[in-house]
Design a protein that fits this description.
With about 475 residues, this protein is an alpha/beta fold. Helix content is about 30%, strand content about 20%. Strands 1-12-7-2-3-4-13 form a 7-stranded mixed β-sheet, with helices on both faces. A 5-stranded mixed β-sheet has the order 17-16-20-18-19, with helices on one face. The two termini are about 30 Å apart.
């Protein structure tokens, strides 16, 4: 890599790449890093099936260190967090490193994404899968007669990591090759080790829950302020989606700072960084660090780009009996297509049986909406019919059919639960979709990021823009 040091994997665990001047001896100094057998070891010489090396970065809202020991009270006070933390995964980022390319693609999965829970018929927020799996494993072990709490916790956390990884694979269609986990202390320690990370905000903002209190403009943050920055979700226009954006900005800034000559040429800084990683990072047991460094030759730090998966509805009400309970609705087919597009391949998504032709009318006034929805339905196996603007703008959306009631209902469901109705004016063998101004279903977002209808530009280490 460009200036890629053998502290590479350390910083990669927080989404960043460091420089090369220190040789393999620096990789050797990471031998004490905590390992977990989350992923089965690949066969010797086996190449990624999709043409990419894929790494899952998990950030846990954990009040323990990498060995499962509770953080001391003084550290919790410094981090501005309480003693009782949930087993949640508040950061989920997939790094895609295409074979033979000098660029790294990274995408975030919002913590409240509403997904299928592995091994069940249930749906839940993706950040809760870790805790669910941990609790289930611990209960099973106790029922089997185990009493050693440390051993129970160790096995339960391993099961939780595997369940989280499986949920990410199911949603994205990406086969994860390696796993890295950081905790609350990681942002604190690593940001201090590099001497702080520069970020830029458009306005003053404050959030009591996270401890965030930042002024507008460019500023360098580290320690507790860095943790507050990546945890803030209150007083942000798009709540969790803007928190994801902040995490990406922080990681891009960390990449830029780590790759700077001042950091790489300072042995004390490098040593602090390595120590910070060894205190707070967990890697999968099959990760050969020396081999990974050889694979990464030629990838430049400036080539890292952070995006967010497409979102159907950021305020999805998943429980009619609890109107205030919301999640981030996502469409797996749309997410898989987005993830595959980052490395230029077609997603391996299941296709629906050949179905009726779907004509899509855009009555929303939003450019390109009909074409995007038509393409998504085509990926589901429906015939792609006419796409055009409706004669007049309307507020609501509907699905119409004459002789295709069952498939019409399926289209309505795929598009986020639209109203479906019989209309004899629709030609036989056709389904007509009319998209109104309030449509927030699949295809409403023009890109792979942000709330429905709002595409964010990728975050890169060289970016100069400010965020909310």
């Amino acid at each position: 890599m460009h200036k890629l040091g053998k502290v590479l994997v350390a910083v990669l665990a927080v989404g960043v790449f460091a420089g090369t001047a220190y040789g393999y001896s620096t990789v050797s100094s990471l031998d004490g890093i905590t390992r977990e057998d989350v992923i089965e070891s690949p066969e010797p010489g086996e190449q990624p099936a999709d043409g990419s090396l894929d790494i899952l970065l998990v950030g846990r809202d954990s009040r323990t260190d990498e060995h499962g020991n509770p953080l001391p009270p003084e550290m919790l006070r410094e981090l501005r967090v309480g003693a009782n933390g949930d087993d949640l995964t508040d950061t989920l980022i997939v790094l895609r490193i295409p074979n033979g390319q000098k660029a790294v693609k990274a995408f975030s999965i919002p913590r409240d994404s509403w997904v299928s829970e592995p091994g069940t018929k249930d749906k839940t927020k993706i950040n809760g899968i870790f805790g669910h799996a941990k609790f289930a494993s611990a209960s099973q072990q106790r029922e089997a007669g185990k009493t050693d709490k440390a051993e129970i916790d160790k096995v339960a956390i391993s099961a939780a990591r595997k369940a989280t990884l499986k949920a990410v694979e199911d949603l994205t269609g990406v086969k994860i090759d390696h796993f890295a986990e950081v905790n609350l202390q990681s942002f604190y320690d690593i940001s201090k080790a590099v001497g702080g990370v520069e970020v830029c905000l458009k306005r003053d903002t404050k959030d009591v829950k996270s401890g965030a209190n930042f002024k507008a403009g460019r500023q360098t943050i580290q320690g507790a302020d860095a943790l507050a920055f990546v945890r803030q979700r209150e007083d942000l226009p798009r709540s969790d989606l803007d928190r994801v954006r902040r995490q990406q900005v922080f990681l891009a800034g960390l990449a830029k700072k780590t790759l700077s000559g001042g950091t790489l040429a300072n042995p004390a800084r490098v040593s602090e960084l390595i120590d910070a990683v060894k205190r707070s990072v967990v890697l999968d047991g099959s990760w050969d660090l020396f081999d990974f460094v050889r694979q990464m030759q030629g990838v430049t730090g400036g080539g890292i780009a952070f995006e967010t998966i497409p979102v159907v509805n950021p305020d999805y009400r998943y429980n009619p009996r609890q109107p205030t309970a919301t999640a981030v609705q996502v469409d797996p087919a749309q997410v898989r297509a987005f993830a595959a597009s980052l490395i230029g391949v077609q997603p391996a998504t299941p296709q629906a049986p050949a179905g009726p032709t779907v004509d899509v009318l855009n009555a929303s006034g939003k450019d390109g909406l009909a074409a995007r929805v038509s393409n998504l339905l085509g990926e589901k196996g429906f015939g792609k019919g006419e796409t055009k603007n409706a004669d007049a703008v309307r507020r609501t959306s509907t699905v119409r059919y004459s002789d295709a009631a069952e498939r019409g209902a399926e289209v309505a469901r795929l598009l986020g639960g639209l109203t479906a109705q019989r209309d004899d004016s629709v030609p036989a063998g056709h389904i007509e979709v009319v998209l109104g101004q309030v449509y927030k279903g699949p295809g409403s977002s023009s890109g792979g990021g942000g709330a429905a209808g709002q595409g964010d530009q990728p975050i890169t280490p060289d970016g100069e823009g400010c965020i909310d």
